[in-house]
Write a structure and sequence with these properties.
- There is one protein chain.
- This protein is mostly beta strands.
- Strands 3-4-5 form a three-stranded antiparallel β-sheet, with no helix packed on it. Strands 8-12-11 form a three-stranded antiparallel β-sheet, with no helix packed on it.
Length: 136
């Protein structure tokens, strides 16, 4: 199964509701921090034409840093335990860029964190504007 979620730390993650995502769909995610205490996250399924936006207002006990971008593939928990990790093949984030004050930044040189649960499950790499996460 596939789902999209948003998170404003230190709050927990929340699923976007009312949007279907399937294997092979092309997804665009746009996050806009309008201040340290507000912004929005929009997910678009370019394969189906569906989109949904969540507005963040007045913070949740933590300020937005307005300079950090992450492209994430991760496991999830069921009953306070990690679910068995699925072989997802490859996930490619293309056109992976962040913009601030008219400047655009890609993931080249980013800190890479592979998934480890008793063993390493992923091999990740970045280029100027692409993040690739591969199940191993």
């Amino acid at each position: 199964s596939y789902n999209a979620w948003y998170e404003w730390y230190p709050d927990f993650s929340h699923d976007f509701s009312n949007i279907q995502i399937s294997a092979g769909n092309v997804i665009r995610m746009i996050v806009n921090a309008t201040s340290k205490s507000s912004g929005s996250a929009t997910i678009e399924n370019l394969s189906t034409g569906a989109s949904i936006t969540h507005a963040f207002r007045k913070g949740l006990g933590g300020d937005l840093c307005e300079f950090n971008a992450e492209w994430i593939v991760e496991d999830f928990s069921v009953n306070n335990a990690l679910a068995p990790f699925a072989n997802f093949g490859n996930v490619v984030f293309s056109n992976a860029v962040a913009s601030r004050n008219g400047n655009t930044y890609g993931p080249s040189g980013a800190i890479i964190m592979d998934i480890y649960q008793d063993r390493i499950f992923t091999s990740s790499s970045v280029t100027e504007n692409t993040v690739t996460v591969s199940y191993i």
